[in-house]
Amino acid sequence: MRSAVTVSLVPESRGGPFVYWDGLTEACFHAAALGFDAIEIFPPSAAAIDPAQLRPLLARHRLAVAAVGTGAGWVVRKWTLTHPDAAIRKRAREFIRAIIDLAADFHAPAIIGSMQGRAEGGVDRAQALNWLGEALDELGAHAATRGTVLLLEPLNRYETNLCNRLGDTAAWLDQRGADSVRLLADLFHMAIEEADPAAALRAAGHRIGHIHFADSNRWAMGLGHTDPAPIIAALRQIGYTGFLSAEVLPLPDSAAAARQTIASLRRCLQARCSPFRPMLKTSLLHPDILRITAQAGHHAKILIADGNYPVSTKRGPHAEVVSLNLAPGVVTVAQVLRALLGAVPVDHVHVMGIPPDDPYAQKGEPPVWNEFRSLLTEAGLPVPLVPILKWDFYRQVESPDHVLTIQTADLALWGNVLLTLGCRTS
Fold it and tell me: Active-site residues: which are they?
């Protein structure tokens, strides 16, 4: 299974469940830096994407296109395949056909979600399903001629009254003989509609063509109530090898949502998807960091500095600096923290606290602190995350016990972490 992250190019949907919003160039840069395999694109129309520009951009970042959404036809134009007006239904089909052609140029499927519409306005459910079925027959056949498939996404009951559950939708497609139509299983919608999402995936396994990897609250996986382990087990059981794509809200912000998603995916897939087998059993491979931590003793301090920290002036007299600030946002404090927690014993974890007179103090805890707490829990480390006010934090860093600063380019505010090393007991 491969990872993907969503990017919306539709201003009217800003704030919706898409991770990146500021163009394909920026989205590809950040997605590749975090290690995603592909992007899923939500364009305003097929004409809004120039394949001649997108193709080298993807090649430069070694990314694929996981899928292309058609939802802008509904969001911007209010077109659906089941609209009472035949002329609008025709425009909806033409809009989707063009998206299919665009997606096929990148060996990707097109998605029909909100454009399936609903039974309303004098149109009963039987009629709406008939119109939807006829459209899927036509558009699925067109996708097949282009060497791809069409994805139909069951939505929750608050968004449609047509296709809500995987099993019902799969049976309906089987009855119609819609061989070129696959199901997009969105874990957020499934959390609402399915009694047992893993069982639903197994039952509809022959139809599953794409996964939206989202938690129960539409945040990134790990920030809601969904347990991904049974989901991944079910997908492995049905032989699914496609994309797990983050169609999630950009909360607390886009960067954090992307980091949380890729971290969750790696945890879920680690046993099967490790890309290489290094000689070291730890995930920490940087030679200088390994050397310094190996020489450090009990009570030694390691600072993981965010992109705003004054690395050159605020450090201990014996400390070395390892610079990992490749580009804005690459790498992050959380990425370094995860690697260190798997390599060294830790007694104390401090973050730079916010002075009461700082304007940011009125906003509460920085969102990134919760991410740090999650990493401590993941590592099985029973120590609290303790803030130290800014100037006291500097004094702690400037002590003779400070042996290493790892400089990141993390853009998260108040993201500095100071580790005090413990003792190896075995």
Answer: 153, 247
The pairing of beta strand 417-421 with beta strand 346-353: antiparallel
What is residue 403's DSSP assignment? E
- Burial pattern 146-181, b for ≥16 Cβ within 10 A else e, equals bebbbbbbbbbeebbebbbbbbebbebbeeeebebb
Q: Where are the alpha helices (DSSP H) in 62-204?
A: 72-75, 86-105, 125-145, 166-176, 187-193, 197-203
Q: Which domains does the chain have, with CATH numbers?
A: 2-273 (3.20.20.150), 287-421 (3.40.1650.10)
**Residues 83-116: tens digit of each pLDDT:** 999 999 999 999 999 999 999 999 999 999 999 9
Beta bridge partners of 38: 4, 64
In this prediction the pTM is 0.66
pLDDT, tens only, 126-173: 999 999 999 999 999 999 999 999 999 999 999 999 999 999 999 999
Q: Which of 9, 10, 13 is nearest to 28 (CA)?
A: 9
Evaluate whether 403 touches 294 at the Cβ level (below 8 Å). no
Closest CA relative to residue 224, chosen from 374, 7, 379: 374
